[in-house]
Amino acid sequence: SIPESLRETWRKHSAQGFVDKDGFEREFVQHIETTLARSLYNCDELAAYSGTALAFRDKLIIEWNKTQQRQTFVDQKRVYYLSLEFLMGRALDNAMLNIDKKEAARDGLGELGFRIEDIINQEHDAALGNGGLGRLAACLLDSMATLNYPAWGYGLRYRYGIFKQEIIDGYQVEVPDYWLDFNPWEFPRHDVTVDIQFYGQSIRHQDENGKVKYDWVGGEIVQAVAYDVPIPGYGTKTTNNLRLWSSKASSGEFDFQKFNAGEYESAVSDQQRAEAISAVLYPNDNLDRGKELRLKQQYFWCAASLWDIVRRFKKTKRAWSEFPEQVAIQLNDTHPTLAIVELQRILVDQEGLEWDEAWRIVVGTFGYTNHTVLPEALEKWSVPLMQNLLPRHIQIIYDINLFFLQYVEKKFPRDRDLLSQVSVIEESQPKMVRMAYLAIIGSHKVNGVAELHSDLIQTTIFKNFVKIYGPDKFTNVTNGITPRRWLHQANPRLSDLIASKLGGYDFLKDLTLLSGIERYVDDADFCKEWSEIKTANKVRLARHIKETTGYTVPPTALFDIQVKRIHEYKRQQLNIFGVIHRYLKIKSMTPEERKKLVPRVLIFGGKAAPGYWMAKTIIHLINSVGKVVNNDSDIGDLLKVIFIEDYNVSKAEIIIPASDISEHISTAGTEASGTSNMKFVLNGGLIIGTLDGANIEITREITESNVFLFGNLAEDVEELRQSHRYAGFTLDDNLAKVFDAIQSNTFGDAGSFEHLIASIADHGDYYLVSDDFDSYIKTQEIVDRDFKKRDEWIAKSITSVARMGFFSTDRVIDEYAESIWNVEPLVVE
Ligand code: GPU
Q1: Which residues fall in a coiled-coil region (predicted)?
Q2: Residue 570 is a catalytic residue
Q3: pLDDT at 268
């Protein structure tokens, strides 16, 4: 660093960033003219976005620097959140809010010839995630910064995020999402690089003192390069860091020797092989596919992150025993479980610690969050695959397992069944490493993400581990959402109305303050404004639907929305069968009967994993039904069915505030938590749902009279499945009629939907669509009835919002900090 005597010059010129409208304009024009080499003659909206983003980026990075210096100086315990997915969405509006300079930018852009909303809309989403798990990681980062926790995220810098979805002739088509053309929010750190090893062999030898050591030799080297993304907190100077790793050929690998020897092509192909590691996000949600490249991604990212974390710790010259007092690492599902093995390897093989001491440090450091009980999503890696790719790690995994099984044997002598049930190694053909078991053994706390889910993991998939370790190792932290993005940014008018009654925006930092609006449920003016805001949000969505699908939908109709990944367990098929039932019913009605109906617009959105045929069939059915219903002049505006393509974070910000009702209708016991349920209620939409995930806790908070619940309970699901198998299976009458309509080609060629119907009618109806159908359509009738009582509906909406305080990720982060991480906030002056 620079000697003290010269620092005055530095301080005199230290960057400040703009402070007001004039300053913003100056920075904007400067960036347009120099950084972007443009001028007032060729500054289109995209360039204006770039100029605006660069001006805000300067502000962010100044605060980022201060935060990092402060955190290094104080050196208290830090949190590291390891996630393969960060579904960040757009950053500019959030930066404007958190820097508290949106008005300066609005006025400045106005004077320069632009509308701020148009500029914000130019930004490409950062879509490095699939769905709820990745978006949760983004909300948690927002809250960690807002609450001033010294916390870093670690992830992968995919060149291609989740694919862009197009709907062509009713089918999903995937288009690559190359999003890095212009990304002002990342800072490449070409000085922060580390070589990561793959393949090769583990060689056993003895050192000069006769101690057995292992050397990992040979194989390939790939270089990890850090890219940093600043994460600003709201109403604080704290700006944390998200570090994303990018892969490239290590300088040794893209070899000038090869190059000079004329092997240009093979030199280039090495380069491409290395770059493939961080090239693309795997597009599966709640599914494990066991591909080698995915395992490479996982190790590459864990090893780079651990190197970085350990390096930072070693600079402080503390004793290794202090590591867990300085470092908390949270594993977002099992994807980063190799970090446990890697830390043990670093401590034992590289730092020379004894196994037991190293293992105490490892377990004290890690916490593991489970996000699913679905068997197809529980990660397993084949032993031969790991043996080949990570020869030393597989040895360490076997040793971890050996010591664990010895511990179990001591506690439960001669219980062979128990040993084989809890072994990290599944004795299958080939043998498999059970990653969740490894994550549990290597962590001091394991949590689920909603009460029902945390109970379920303790009584089903992990029950043996509760028996072995006792219940204290397991806990619940119910998910939440950030109110900054999901209330204030997505629904500014609602946020402003609430602020006008609560005397300011403190509720964005303490969401429980929302309870203060409940006393306005009888205030006619307030209710009227509330209702007008909902209508305005519906008009905005109707405009988007018109622009993107060509369909006109009436904003006075009931907007009924289901947006989330397409999955059989989430049961979009139940919804669309319900829509068909409604369509058939309307068709059979007299004009008099039709007059009493509440017009409905069904809005669907969500991506199917490219290899998930049943999910793709569901998308096709929704679009086929839409085509028939929307063009049926006999139906008119009574029913519309819309599929919004390419559902993502920025679309969610338009869609969610426009709902009258939204659907959270998973088979009970399958949706770990769900988080869009929280977003919809916070925006004044009511929900129809099963007693699953966080629906249960939302109901407890806002009370049962404000939720439309239906369907079988989680505790009865297994028995129902059994009864399908052995007692025979009769289809619900109304569902049978829906199937008849499909099978008589009402919605195009019935052959397309044959397997979807067969999975229910002939193959056991695993997701209980038929069992829940009657309860579902009856509850939808209650929704129709209640929607007509406009005043009561608005009162329900207001009351629900007022009671949503619990579901902020601020509360979630405080719970993790207190019960898992043991970290304190650190305020940056
Ligand atoms: N979740 Br596992 C995903 O979005 N993707 C996954 O691969 C796995 C879980 C979701 C859960 O399905 C959802 O219920 C939960 O709210 C979310 O994680 C965050 O915990």
Answers
A1: none
A2: yes
A3: 85
